[in-house]
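Hi Y.,

Following your request, here is the sequence exactly as I used it, all 144 residues.
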Amino acid sequence: MTQDQTEFSGAKLALFLGPSLLVIRRDDRADIPWPDHWDLPGGGRDGDETPLDCALRETREEVGLMVPADQVIWRVSYPRPRGRVWFFAAHLPASWGTQVVLGDEGQEWRLMPPHDYVRHPKAVPHFAEQLDKYLGSPEFRRRV
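Below is the corresponding structure, written out as tokens. Let me know if you'd prefer a different format.
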């Protein structure tokens, strides 16, 4: 299904390094949504970039990884109060974990089993919901 990519507020990337999901613990500040929760790379749109460009740029800024666009195998968009959000999934070898460098946002990063993220009490709920959908998708089942 082709979805409109012109109007959206941001994008997230469920980035798997080997079998694990790369997650970022958000800063613990009252002025941001979901403080001190486990998040995924991604964020708000800059200018007229595409949803995928947004997710890949934010991933580079937040964890220092330049994810090749052809490694993104799943995408969906869904409405949120601030506008439409895109959610992507990509898989890279576990060895990419040695290249992760936390950017200016977040307290720490870690690799987490994806099902643990879905059930984690400090996972951002709507990202956990989208990840759960991906974990049940044919695209994910072909990866495992």
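Strands lie at 10-17, 20-25, 38-39, 42-44, 72-80, 83-92, 108-112.

Thanks again,
Q.
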